[in-house]
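## retry 2 of 3
previous attempt timed out at serialization; input unchanged, resubmitting
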Amino acid sequence: MRKLHVRKGRGQSLVEFALILPIFLLLIMGIIDAGRLVYTFNTVSNAARQGARIAIVNQSTSGTTTCDTAVATTWPVGCAIGSGLVLNLQPADVAVQYRDNTDTTTCNPVLIGCIAVVTVTGTYSPLTPIIGQFIGTMDVSSTTKMPVERACDNANLPTGIPHC
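## retry succeeded, writing output
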């Protein structure tokens, strides 16, 4: 006579899968959110660098979002905003300062040798709601400092210094 084998662990694999799946998905989404955070920081850093590149040759206080240094309406803040379009940056998110060569006091008027300091702040919010509850939204900031190569603040340049 043939013996019947009773399998006692029929649902064991399903239960193990159900226990591991949420942890596995949280790990995968955490990796994706970490990648997005790195992308946000990289974009903010690039926007600060692009804004500083314009600030060292054109110290305009208004203009367009073009980054072409040959155009008179190029604006450091606008260039930073244009470089960080995916973050929906606003003019309030970009700060442009000109400091003396020791980086301690404000440089006024802006002359060659002053340091252009451009700070861009973007906002990061995670995709995963669970991770979002733990860390919430956070500000990601980057600062770029470059020496001024050409003084172009026509309104504040002393007499005898070439104007743009």
